Amino acid sequence: MTLTLGEIARHIKAELYGAPEYEIHAINTLQKASTGEISFFSNRRYLTWLKSTTASAVILSKEDRELCPTATLVVDNPYLAYAFTARLLYPEPEHKPGISSSAHIDPSAKIHSTAFIGPHVTIGTDTIITENVFIGAGSVIGNNVIIGTNSKLYANVVMYDGVKTGERVILHSGVVIGADGFGIANNKGRWVKIPQIGSVVIGNDVEIGANTTVDRGALDNTIIDDGVKIDNQVQVGHNVHIEEHTAIAGCVAIAGSTRIGKRCIIGGACGISGHIEIADDVTLMGMTGVANSIKESGVYASVIPAMDVKLWRKNAVSFKQLHTFATRIRKIEDNNQ
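and the corresponding structure tokens:
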């Protein structure tokens, strides 16, 4: 889509310094953008690229305007304005309703006339597919599933029986919703499977990345509230509750019965133990391990940065003796009192 700078400025509520009639047809990086393309500046690491950019316009904050050699759109939050601009220039393609001849749909399922059902899709009994839902090729939708309006399932999504989603939900390829949780009991050294009789309930405006799994509840439901964003290859255990507008980066593992509060940011590859609670507005840095509840908002980290292997081995030896060192220090302090 092609828009003028004036149109973009109005949509993102920017103060424009440049010709409003100038046409923009694409977004690109500061380093690679050229004539007819717009870029954005929100990270000081790229200051050199800002000063030398050949983009036709740049979205940035007021304090950086004089550093830019081209037209500018001044806003308070350049990254957010970039997101809105990208949505303007690259709108989601509208799907045409219809049901592929190779789809297998149980006669009891209710498919709205505006929905699209792709090739080789399977839909089970008493399932409800509402307005403007898109289901990509090869997806398998179980029995008694409800998919809310304007939701999009890419190819090869699997939704087990009884799963429910809200409106405008996006599930990327390979997502599995409602698989059995890891419920087993030990019987004299042998494992006995515990039936997982809960389900999964997903709110509105949730997006779940490729190859992520959300397990069904053991008794109650696993719940993902409105506005939650989950990246690729994330494991969400049974009976987890993720509250509104939390964002979770790739390769995070969340064990069962954990509750994560509102507006949390979980960095990549974090490991979160089961049966704990994380407060609202908590940020976990990448690869942080969480073994106990976090009761106050803030930024938390536990990862050890990479270092020379010889130094790491020395530190590892010291780490094993930390308790001994702490005990000695306490004795010294007690003796000095």
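(Above: one complete record from the training split.) The chain is about 15% helix and 30% strand.
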